[in-house]
Amino acid sequence: MRGYLDAVRQPGQTVNPLFATLGVEVEHVTDGEATLRLVTTEGLVQGGGVVAGGILATLADEAMAHAVIGGLAEGLVTATTECSVRFLCPARAGSVLLARAVVVRRGRTVVFAEASVTDGDGRLLVRASGSFLVMPRRVAPAGADSP
After folding, report:
1. Cα distance between residue 147 and residue 145, in whole Å
2. pLDDT tens per residue, range 59-114
3. Which is nearest to 99 in space by CA: 115, 121, 122?
4. What is the DSSP letter of 110?
5. What's the half-sphere exposure (Cβ side, CA atoms, 13 Å) at 32?
6. I want to staple 101 with a disulfide (CB 3.0 to 4.6 A). Which of 24, 37, 63, 77 is the partner?
7. C-alpha pair distances (Å), 3 with each of 11, 104, 128
8. What is the DSSP string of 5-71?
């Protein structure tokens, strides 16, 4: 995962298409901690005039996943198995959002994490918790598409 973590931090990165599409930047990743940054745009606003809840949930989930990834041994990957999100305050277009996540318990096959999303004024927008399955990376046979 070291190669991925190095690559995803680079400007114009292409190893994480979701981050490239949304504009998410990886500010910090270590074993058990991660911080992601997103400057919201009009394209992320829903009909009520605020940033869509799914964007905020995605940011929290990805921050937790990257906190988990930061501590994985080579050859292992992770997938979210459960995510609980509490929306506390809306975000407006143009807001700078910071998602900070920490691992609260690391087992051999399941890791538990928590995240918060704040805006540039320090307002707490989201609290989230999740569990993440740790598994070996599957290598697809030559010529086959990987899932």
Report:
1. 6
2. 999 999 999 999 999 999 999 999 999 999 999 999 999 999 999 999 999 999 99
3. 115
4. E
5. 5
6. 63
7. 15, 25, 27
8. HHHHTSTT--S-HHHHHHT-EEEEEETTEEEEEEE--GGGB-TTSSB-HHHHHHHHHHHHHHHHHTT
Q: DSSP characters for 1-21?
A: -HHHHHHHTSTT--S-HHHHH
Residue 104 β-bridge partners: none
User: Across-strand partners of 34?
Assistant: 29, 101
pTM of the model: 0.91
Residue showing tokens 């609980």: 84
